[in-house]
Design brief:
Helices cover 74% and strands 0% of the residues. By secondary structure, the chain is mainly α. The chain has one domain.
Length: 374
Amino acid sequence: MWVILAGLGALAVVTGWLPSEVAYDIGVTRAAPILGFLVAVTVLAELADIAGVFDIAAVWCARLARGSTLLLFGLTAVLATVTTICMSLDTTAVLLTPVVLALTRRLGLAPLPFAFLVVWLANTASLLLPVSNLTNLLALQHANTSTRAFAAHMVIPQLVAVTLTVVYLGIVFRRHLTGSYAAPEPVAPADRLTCIACALACGGFAVAIMAGVPPWLAATAAATATLAVFALRGRKHLSWTLFPWRLIVTTEGLFLTVTAVVHHGLGDLLIRWSDGSGARTTAVAATASNLINNLPAYLAMETAVPQGNPNGIYPVLLGTNIGPLVTMWGSMATLLWAQRCRSRGVPISARTFATIGIIGMPIVLLGTWLALPG
């Protein structure tokens, strides 16, 4: 996929199909801070995972639930929500999924409810902060607003989205959430100091974001701190594989390719289909996300938001963040989640995913849209 997208993006620029000034604006001016953030937060999350932060958090939830499967389901929801909000939906999908699946196997619990809980919250809990989703970072640029203003506008919708997600999946998987399990023994990190340092770096990153520090700068500072700790206490874990170059190439290719298509008529078509900032805009964004993936859907839908309406971008975000829960290719996080599930012996078919999503997604989306401030 990354090869195709990179080729399409380069072709659009080289042939002039995407004018050079437009390509520079989207590919450099807007993309640079986002890609810088993506690199830094990926390194931070990977090193935190190596240090055992996610494993310890998951086992802590299992012990706190005191053997109650239903309570563990709720605490896993809290962990997935916090991870998504503070460290991005991709972190939840890629790093928390295998941890949760390993924990359910260890406890003898059905893995499917917890797997779906993680991936749904990776999407539906990605509304509150700019760092939660790449679409949010793009929206922050477009609306020219602050992190605090963004969070203030999204806090009620985020609470509604998470609540409806947990309730809906709890009802769907209610038969698997009864009974109890034997509480696991505590997990000791391989290096206690490194684990504490990584946990503090993650916490500091979240605090810096809420304080209004630019996401790329906050992520870079936190990643640099963890790299320094590993350079002193775990150098064997440092390698170029930490650098997510394929994800960077894929994202840049998406930016250029979709911008070219929008420039040649897709933007005008979406403007005609949408209603500016209402329910129809949210529905179109959700539909487009399931058809072509939420990141290109956002880039295309952004052109449908009227100029001079800073709040007009939020209905689009509801559609692109919550909407892609019917098709597995609706978001990159879901594709990564499905791959991690398969590798852990929990294959989930596209049909199963769609069957659960086709009913639940509209419920969560409508409830969240109703909670969106005017």
